[in-house]
Amino acid sequence: MGNSRSKPTKSTGASATLVHDSDQISMIPEEGRYDTCRILVANGIPNAVWFEDLLALHGSDTIVWDLSHLIDDPNAAAVLLCKLNYKCVLPDDRYEHIHEIAQSGIRMVLPTNGLKIVLLRAHDWHYDMSTCPKSCVPRICDFLDAIMDLWLNMSSVEYDDRLLFALHLACLIDYAYSLKYHHGKASKANSFAENLREEHRELHFDMVSNSKGRESWTFARRHERHARTYRNIKEGNFTPEPCTPTAFKQSLAALPEQ
């Protein structure tokens, strides 16, 4: 029996739950797709909607695949769900290059509706479950903080060895800056940096700049610069500032190597 591949589903119903990023979605979405959120919460297991579903609930028109949940202990959640007739299934082979999903994640299906979910370890995705709202839908700024931190923490060797994973993270970051309605306007503003951790703000300013010279995500040099800037911000050697025509940005060579 080989690995299986999910069928994409166009996100629907998200507009009914859209909120400003300074607020939080106050309730678990009413769509049946999110019933697992309610089941886990009712049994004392906090969980966070992740990946494309989270983006869709915040205004993205992205296609959704399996419903991913971040959980502190996926194994405990899986034991509970098995008692409720959920069945474990093979990982989606689209993610075979991401061990955080294919190896550490637990993929399950509810036979009554065929919806596939994936239970992921929150620690692997740099997300603190103590910050998860009751709605199980993190704010977009908290999603960005987690995904940016993963991308920025990759060493140059890891970036080369796990290029597909690095590009997957970059794609998620791009989605978060391509939201519809007021969400897109909010995340594209320099002031949105106030919602992010300081060490991620330089990457934010790069994302919202209109610089024609901005490098593609596929260029390792872009990652190298931001990873080094990230480390220097944490060491107090660099202050993130918005990109403006008069702003002076240190060259990569001028940044101390940590």
Written description of the protein model:
The N and C termini lie far apart (47 Å). This protein has helices spanning 35-42, 51-57, 74-83, 99-102, 140-152, 156-161, 163-176, 181-187, 201-208, 220-234; strands spanning 9-10, 48-50, 63-64, 67-71, 87-88, 106-109, 116-121. It contains 10 helices and 7 strands. Helices cover 36% and strands 9% of the residues. Helix 5 runs antiparallel to helix 7. It is globular, with a radius of gyration of 19 Å. It is α+β, with helices and mostly antiparallel strands and 258 residues long. The strands form 2 sheets. Strands 2-4-7-6-5 form a 5-stranded mixed sheet. A two-stranded antiparallel sheet has the order 1-3. It folds into 2 domains: 11-131, 2-Layer Sandwich (Beta Polymerase, domain 2), CATH 3.30.460; 140-253, no CATH class.
List keywords for this structure.
258 residues, alpha+beta, Beta Polymerase, domain 2, two-stranded antiparallel sheet, 7 strands, 9% strand, globular
Brief characterization of the structure:
The protein is an alpha+beta fold and 258 residues long. 36% of the residues lie in helices and 9% in strands.
Blueprint (SSEs and pairs):
Elements: E1 9-10, H1 35-42, E2 48-50, H2 51-57, E3 63-64, E4 67-71, H3 74-83, E5 87-88, H4 99-102, E6 106-109, E7 116-121, H5 140-152, H6 156-161, H7 163-176, H8 181-187, H9 201-208, H10 220-234
Parallel strand pairs: 4-7
Antiparallel strand pairs: 1-3, 2-4, 5-6, 6-7
Helix pairs in contact: 5-7
